[in-house]
Amino acid sequence: MRESNVLNHIIVTWLGVALLVVQSLAHAETETLERIEWKKAPIRLELTVGQEQRIDFPAAVKVGVPGSLQSLLRTQSVNGTVYLLAHTSFGLSRLMVSELDSGQIYLFDVTAAEEGGIGHPLQIYVSGEGGAANNLATGSNDSVQGQPGYIQLTRFAAQQLYAPSRLIKDRPGIVRVPVGRDAVDLVHGGTVEATPLVAWRANGLYITAVKLTNRTDQPQTLDPRHLRGAWLTATFQHSRLLPRGDETDTTAVYLVSARPFDVSH
Length: 265
Hints:
- There is one protein chain.
- The chain is of the alpha+beta class.
- The chain has 4 helices and 16 strands.
- Helix 1 (2-21) crosses helix 4.
């Protein structure tokens, strides 16, 4: 029990420090995504002809398109993200989007016009589900209504990778999901190799542990601003890699995202 408490204290300490380092990354994400809470009232959406609109949902969905819009509006649904593209202008029409697993339904009142700006990507959340992601806007990473938030997910992933096997426990509501194991171009500059290890999903959020290895003969300082992708938080197990061949040339980064890793990086 004492060993477990010491381990948890160490993990909590470095998580607190690391999460402070990534505030600039989190701030950038809040500027690019417009978050909208589903309150059972249809959401108004104005499309610009020829400009694709992205909408992120808490889970995989399908889109119901009225027959009158079949030739006017292209819809694609991929891993919880919907892409809408109007081919021509049209008047007010209603789209019904439903989650494949839960049956949760969202309604959108959509119009399209020839002129308009490029709309920000939207993220739809339900209070008590997407609320954890919405905490980013206020700088809070606490869990919502007992559901795991950023810190809890990151702590869970770190324990799965680094804790002794006798101390590893599953947590209800956090489910392992598949992730590609091939190296990815995650870090700008090409000096650090990144290989996904394992991923989980909980409460409409995804947490992915990625192994980082120094490819060079020079030490590398890790900076979340150098990461490619749309991440809500990025937490390094260690912030510095020694030259390749050293026993500390490898570490892990824990990435929390609103979508699966394969479509976020």
